[in-house]
Amino acid sequence: MYCLTAHSAIPLAAVAIAGATIATVPAYADNSVAPSTVVGDSTQPAPQAVVPAPAVNGLQEFFDDWAAWVSDAKASQPSWAGPIATTSGLLGQRYRFEVQLQQSGNGTQTTNFDNGKGVDLIVSETQEIRLALPPYYIRTGTPPQNTLSGFADWSIFRFKQRLLSSPQDQGNYVVSAWVGLSLPTGIAKLTSHYASLSPTIGFGKGWGAFDVQVNFGAVVPTGLVRSALQGRLAEAFQATNGDRIIGNVAFQYQLLGMIWPEIEVNWTYYADGSRAGLSRVFLTPGISIARIPITKGLKLTLAVGYQAAVSPAYRAMPLTPQFNNAWLLSASLGF
Question: Is residue 79 within a helix (H) or strand (E), and if so which, with residue range?
Fold first, then answer.
């Protein structure tokens, strides 16, 4: 026979007390656990469910990075409008289309569609590329042998490296270098017969609403021709046109946010060839309405200019300047 003693009663009392203070984990009808578990006087938070990270879409990640490059590139340079004829040192992302309506001293009228423009893409915070279509010419006049229609040489690619820049509310300047590649794909009357490179350096400086944008470059034949006949034709073309040094300067003023009146000086110096020593100079007044909002992220720029030759005096052989005056009509869609 067993009996309870004082010694055996103590452990039983401890168990009874512990049983009173340890609560079982309440459960719901669906067997889920209540939000917290009470142990004595402390409350422990229930474990949180682990939410899996969303799957990374490689293509979406690329476009997100690209958008960041574009935003950073634009934020770190002035927000001037691009000049009508002068290539700017600014980086931009746009599709641009241009039409030139030219009048020449020999009585011909030429319409130049596209004029070597195309798509400009910002590919890093300091770099831009251009992919262009070949320009298409329609020329009318007398005698009939002066008339033609067809594609001219193809300025297929341009790479631009921005070297220095500061936004408009700080230093307000930009310095860039670029090189373009042109291929001899034009019809017989509109081709140089050789591929060429166009290395150029451009810079700009602004003071409040006023800015000046300048570039200097050259046309450098590469010597790449498709055949011996093309080589002879290329030599003949070079004998006429020679090596050329090109310079442009644009003076702009910003009005009412989006309106940019300007005047440009466009200069070509013929170092040798039949035009050796001549300087061809155009004055180009014009006006742009820049960055008209279309949709989120899309902005339209419209521009018109009038280009007039002021030097040299007209000569028929070789035709100099190639045209006396021209209307320039431009539209670009920035994105």
Answer: none
